[in-house]
Predict the structure.
Amino acid sequence: MKALVIGGDGYCGWATALHLSNKGYEVAILDSLARRHWDDKLGAQTLTPIASIQKRIQRWYELTGKKIELFIGDITNYDFLIKACRKFEPESIVHFGEQRSAPYSMIDREHAVFTQVNNVVGTLNILYAIKEEFPDSHLVKLGTMGEYGTPNIDIEEGYIEIEHNGRKDILPYPKQPGSFYHLSKVHDSHNIHFACKVWGIRATDLNQGIVYGVLTEETGMDELLINRLDYDGVFGTALNRFCIQATIGHPLTVYGSGGQTRGLLDIRDTVRCMELAIANPAEAGKFRVFNQFTELFSINDLAHMVQKAGATMGLKVEVKTIENPRVELEEHYFNAKNTKLLDLGLQPHYLSDSLLDSLLNFANKYRDRVDLEQVLPKVSWRR
Ligand code: NAD
Ligand code: USQ
């Protein structure tokens, strides 16, 4: 089976490309390398030193004898995308290739417009490439749990049965996203759903929660294969940031009251979910939605778990509440379903078991690379 991993130089994409290659898939990576450029412009670097994509792929080949083809270019350029697809002839298209930071999308008008054009146009081009020349290939697209927002009812997997004025229907679950980035994912979902309906495309939308950790079986094989670990106020996500803050003695930055609750998963489960989605493709014409997370935690839960795990390493970790730069509910109901991937065979890693191995130990090893200027948030939703 041939899998094209779009965004394969990024955090989830790199780990997934290696995992699929290890499992015997023929893999190609397509990436514009834009993320490295955005980091440079922000003056922020991943905590772990990552090699060039060419060196990473070469090292993988030396270690395993498995080849990964590379296409460098931007999927908003249809001509480039279709040529890469013609050359590789993918059976699965795994799409991670988007601007994925909520704060980045809220910097100003320019970044909001860029995020939505990059994400929505890129996905639309993929849908056209599938429709025009690869109608049987399966699109596996990364969505986000943040598409749903924080409604005061249970969150289903993509669809909800609604009874209204005596009639019933199963409809897309209502969306209340919290940033222009999260909104771009909602727009993608609508476009994919429509394309499935009118062209008979097969697609799976994986509404992923917040991913944590550095280590997978494959990225842990060699220092040159190491994955990125972002800790800055723009691309760093809550738990990854907390672990790095803990190792440098910076108080953990809980935004607001810390009652915000989210779905989370270990990067080792991300790669396994991708494998499961590809191995069990959606039917033609079907827009399938899975919620991809393994556990629910509030931000306060995460901070206290890091504090506790830090203590076992001799770290004295302080938790500090700072003014919330975002506009979001800080105390709310949150109960989301996540049974579809478990039914396909996912066996989750649990945070309580992996906090040290997959995160705090890495954070500690590379802590000299932390740029203190990047730790506090600078982007505000209100400005
Ligand atoms: P990342 O920034 O590390 O990787 C994204 C990659 O896509 C980068 O290498 C970038 O260069 C590439 N890219 C972006 N736009 C492109 C374009 N137009 N053409 C070609 N390549 C392009 O992000 P990530 O954390 O790996 O996230 C991957 C996907 O998973 C995103 O769609 C994101 O929304 C989703 N996701 C991530 C998380 C998380 O916690 N990291 C959680 C839920 C969902
Ligand atoms: N938060 C803190 N302190 C921090 C950083 C974040 O309290 O130092 C809070 C935020 O206010 C928010 C929550 O933690 O309430 C999550 O923020 P985050 O930056 O960890 O995650 P988010 O912005 O939602 O985005 C990340 C990924 C995105 C993905 C999303 C999944 O960057 O690509 O779509 O997680 S989800 O959160 O389920 O929508």
Observations:
- Residues 2-374 form a domain with the Rossmann fold fold (CATH 3.40.50.720).
- The longest helix spans residues 109-133.
- The pocket of sulfoquinovose-uridine-C1,5'-diphosphate (ligand 2) is lined by residues 100-102, 144-146, 209-210, 237-238, 241, 253-255, 260, 262-263, 299, 326, 328 (CB under 6 Å).
